[in-house]
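One chain given next:
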Amino acid sequence: MRIITANLNGIRSAASKGFFEWAVQQEADVIGVQEVKAQSEQVTGIHCHVGKMPGQFHYAQKRGYSGVGIYTQQEPSEVIVGLGDEEFDYEGRWVEARFDKPGRKLSIISCYFPSGSSGEERQQAKFRFLALLYPRLLALRETREFILMGDVNIAHQNADLKNWRSNQKNSGFLPEERAWMTKVLSEGGLVDVYRRLHPDTTDTCYTWWSNRGQAYANNVGWRLDYQLASPSLAATARTAAVYKDSKFSDHAPLTIDYDFDL
């Protein structure tokens, strides 16, 4: 099972840079996308498939903002759009494809965490999102296996960003955000699948680069895109790679192969 997550920073922009041609060649089973920045009428019939893989989407109410999608080779048994929370469902942040069958409950989720980098108001929204999400993840873990993929907008450890010393008071590397991630991976029982396979990488782990200065050229990056999995699924992960040969967005796609069948 090949699972790819990619923040597109605009599905139409990424399409113009060759994302869909690349995605078809990957022969993935599931592709999650975030920051679609489009509405249904701008996606339906145009970007609603990757090859023969149909997509399911959660669009933001605000035009040109946020939004997530998930493309699947197999038809899900059920699709859950949104978290059931008015504030964040307005922003289009959660789409969950379920692949349930007798004796097994499995979800694969595309999720886009808020960024707090624009100011204190959005940082507080991000903290509200984290507070909302943690018990949801615990409840999911009690009832089903799952993989949550997406742009988490948190670099967890020093190794996950180039300039960690100067970013300790910046959104994405705040102590409270990092503590949340630590709690998810300890008490919450989830596994950071990339780090399970690559515990020591630094410069090669980054998935996002600022558009300011020469961040991309100098690889001044952050690891913000994750696949978080329940332990039994994480144990089947075999390879993980960040794709940087083409640049579809300010993020790079993260591909993980699992020894597991949908």
Summary: The first strand starts at residue 2 and ends at 7.
